Amino acid sequence: MEISLEVIIFLVLASGFAGFVDSIAGGGGLIQLPSLLISMPNTAPSLLLGTNKLPSFLGTLGATASYLRKVKPDFKLAFVMAIPAFIGSGLGASVATNIPKDAFKPIILFMLIIVAVYTWRKKELGLVEDFRFARRHQVAMGAIAGLVIGFYDGIFGPGTGSFLMLILVAIMGFAFLQASVTAKIVNLSTNLGAIVVFGINSQIMWILGLTMAIGNITGGFLGARWALKGGSALIRKVFLVVTTLLILRLAYDTFLRG
């Protein structure tokens, strides 16, 4: 497949911005996947979905490494969430070409509105840790959430970071900064599960994906450094902005696009 230099440059820049945003509060799929869909309209959606996962994985890997130098995540919980997330993502990717994406949009839109309103009204949410459940309950909720969100990430994607952050902050009681790095570890697992399935089915443009990864890794590194300086308060603000933009995009896709 021949891709013009202009398209490649555009996708690398878009991937860089996506990596920057995603490393702070999730939501990089709001930028990167639409950029692929817009710039390559004649390419099979499953091929674009698969290609999108490669720079996302490598960018998240770089951002996670930056966080781990300064922040200690809940490794046990991240591990418990990551395994079912990997399985769920692989299952989602395996049926991605058989389920119409439009069927999910109204449900996701409704859920994201709840996420945004709840976070906006609870101004103290995620600024400090406030654990609400016993450890065994945290682990059980984490495993279930990992499986469900992983399946969603494999089959569709945008908003995965927002849902992971919601589970960790609003339900479990983590501060935004620690939740962000824990979510990154789980997101690595969901991306990897999808990559395995898409790769086996030859649904990844490897050269393009690796080229885009240059931008995503750079953006992720810069975003993580910015987030570490701003702490949970900054991450909360970016989280609200990204979630709102995702709501607007899904509302447009659901109700206005012909």
Low-confidence stretches: none
Oligomer: single chain
Using DSSP, what is the number of strands? 0
Termini, distance in Å? 29 Å
State the secondary-structure class: mainly alpha
What form results from the Cα inertia axes?
Answer: globular
Measured by DSSP, the beta-strand proportion falls in: under 5%
Largest sheet: none
Question: What is the total domain count?
Answer: 1
Number of helices: 9
| CA-based gyration radius | 17 Å
Strand and helix order: HHHHHHHHH
The helical percent reads: over 70%
The chain-level mean pLDDT equals: 86
Structural features, described:
The chain has one domain (5-256). The chain is globular, with a radius of gyration of 17 Å. The model has no long low-confidence stretch (mean pLDDT 86). With 258 residues, it is mainly α. It is built from 9 helices and no strands.
